[in-house]
Structure of Leukotriene A(4) hydrolase:
Amino acid sequence: MRLSPIDPSSYSNAHELIITHIDLEWTVNFEKSTLSGSASLSFKTLRDDVEEIFLDSSDLDIASMAVKTAAGEIPVSWDVGKPVENIGSKLTVYLPTKTSGEFKLIVEYETNPKASALQWLNAEQTCGKKHPYLFSQCQAIHARSLVPCQDTPAVKFTYNATLRHPIGVTGLMSAVKLKSESGVSYFKQSIPIPSYLLAIVVGALVEKPIGPISSVWAEQEQIDESAEEFSQTADFIAKAEEICGPYVWGRYDLLVMPPSFPFGGMENPCLTFVTPTLLAGDKSLATVVAHEIAHSWTGNLVTNRNFEHFWLNEGFTVFVEGKIVGRLFGNASRDFHALHGLSELTDCIKTQLADTPELTKLVVDLSDCSPDDAFSTVPYMKGSTFLRYLEDLLGGPEKFEPFFRSYLNTFKFKSVLTNDFKKALYDWFREDPKNEEFLSRIDWDLWLFGTGMPPVIPNYDRSLLEACQKHAKLWAENDIETIKASSLLSEPLTSIQLIEFLAQLLEKKTIQGLTPEKVALLDQTYRIHATKNAEIRFRFVRLYIRAKMMDKMDEILAFANSNFRMKFVRPIYKELAGWPEAKPIAVENYNKVKDQMMTVCAYTVSKDLGLETGK
């Protein structure tokens, strides 16, 4: 069932009226785990005589509503529909008269302690152990648990916020901070954003400058390590501007999150949230920051109109991220980055999406599926592969990048569907009749609606990948003595190659003699226990699971409990669920820690374990 004409996951009647600006007054209450206060929503009608507003809400405790007009405030009545799991409720507001033009709706309310967008941590769950901590994650459709809104990326609004919080902690938002006084912070976001980019964090945070428009924020215990890890940020921004055009958001700060943050990064405007699992000690995972910076154009400026077209955000962003990597570290690195993405895609299609092939399409149908259930690496990797295919087909970067910049410039501040991109591509490249033949070769149906891996894999430079494949072949096909004698072991692998080698090994259908001795030799050979790199450790504990090493269960669970980044915990739980002796241990562990997970993580992991509900 599609909830509205514009967006299958939103009840809002955004085809009749839209929110253009929100003024937020929030008080953070750590004792009750709530935000309370008011939201003043500025509306503009798209047709005359609107009588009702349909908004999205989830577990909000609404005290009052009033329409503000020149004559003053008029109280209005409202009705909250029955909640639907993972979607929320339809909030119907009855306007006092038929309304046209612009008006404001003021809502006094409080969030629920279990609001799906908010994670409340007690002091014990932080590094410093002195102050509690609050953070939000609204993407895809959780802003409705923070504020009654048109929770669809089809609608964009500016916002101002006044945030009251305890003295002694810092409040930050996805906006520019205007000023802060004792226990009050003021923010302004002057560029229109979709609701999923609304963000808040409150905690014992300190900052350290890392560039002309950038600081990193973290708890004191991680600040120096974080500043060092992300020291390339200004270079990433400079390269992104070369590719995409001017950076318009004013600030680009980074916030290193607590371990329960469920994603690698979240591109909240002015303040990217990143997982602490990027702190590898050697900058080898910092390209996630290049990805989040790229979102400042692809996603944040030009936005998918609904999450069926999520590839317009993520595929485009991975494409730009690859270009940033290429400009800084060379084309072989760019291509290796893309090939590594393809091996993650292969893994995802084989494990996470094995039972739902329809979710391997580039454009998915969310009529009966929430965006959280559809979330995977497909829109990222299949989407970026499609763009690379188009770039190669249409004459390479020198021909494609001017088009790409023009597309971003045409659609900035707007929300788009795949057909908007397709039309822009044809309009641009048809100016030269020589391109007709190339354009006619593109099988849009197969790329957008075909299942499985991308129909064409571009002709990538495989030099950095081949070393990983040789190592994987050696370990998969030989016994311990042959491996020990191999000259290949004297050829060192970089951190990123080591990740890919382990990924390739896990992809093998059979690994000869996968005994505890062989796993121990692999550990010793590549010094895996000495690494802080979470991507390496993640793949190594999956090797323990593959080898059914029950005596390593404590280590497997220790990694799964060290962070709740879905990219890591979901495959681990899914693979433990497929090992009959381990499944009850995994379920018992999940039940112990699920309250420390963010809602989206607890919900999806429960499904991976085959439990009925994530509640």
User: Anything to note?
Assistant: The CA atoms of residues 561 and 593 lie 7 Å apart. The domain at 1-116+129-196 is CATH 2.60.40.1730 (Immunoglobulin-like). The first strand starts at residue 17 and ends at 29.
